[in-house]
Amino acid sequence: FLVDITAHLNDLNLRLQGENLLINDMFQTVTAFEVKLKLWHRQIKNNNLIHFETLSEQNHVNTEKYAALINSLSQDFESRFQDFRKHQQQFSISATPFSVDINMLPANLQLECIELQSDIQLKEKFLQASLLDFYKLYLPTEKY
Fold first, then answer.
1. Long-range contacts of 104-112 (CB under 8 A, 24+ apart)
2. Of 12, 59, 72, 100, which sits with the fewest C-beta atoms within 10 Å of its C-beta?
3. What's the longest Cα–Cα distance across the chain?
4. In whole angstroms, what is the distance from residue 45 CA to residue 37 CA?
5. Is residue 24 within 8 Å of residue 95, measured between CB atoms?
6. What is the pLDDT along the chain (144 residues), one digit of tens a residue?
7. Environment class of residue 68 by beta-carbon count within 10 Å: exposed (0-12), middle (13-18) or buried (19+)?
């Protein structure tokens, strides 16, 4: 079990490392891992060890024990990343500024977002460039 879960955690760790990662990308990676934890919890409880190759090779696996460990890890992730969830709306705004509903935004961002969404040239650049390049190269910092 430890071999398998460590491999999954190492994969998460590698996805969170590196240059040019935006916070919303990292948040999506962590959120996806949390969903995977819930999936693994259900699967292990049902004796489905498809994502735990090393564990599946063992005889007489105590699935309740491992399901409880996965559940505990899931709760730890929820606890540790709860502050990020408070900022989920801001992450969505930065990831999809042209499709966000103006009425759902905080008042201090509404006018600026209207200006941004009304700029056809910026919208075209947003569709063509990566999110990082859009913010680094095209979005005028003096205006936004």
1. 112/144
2. 59
3. 64
4. 12
5. yes
6. 999 999 999 999 999 998 889 999 999 999 999 999 999 999 999 999 999 999 999 999 999 999 999 999 999 999 999 998 888 888 888 999 999 999 999 899 999 999 999 999 999 999 999 999 999 999 988 888
7. middle
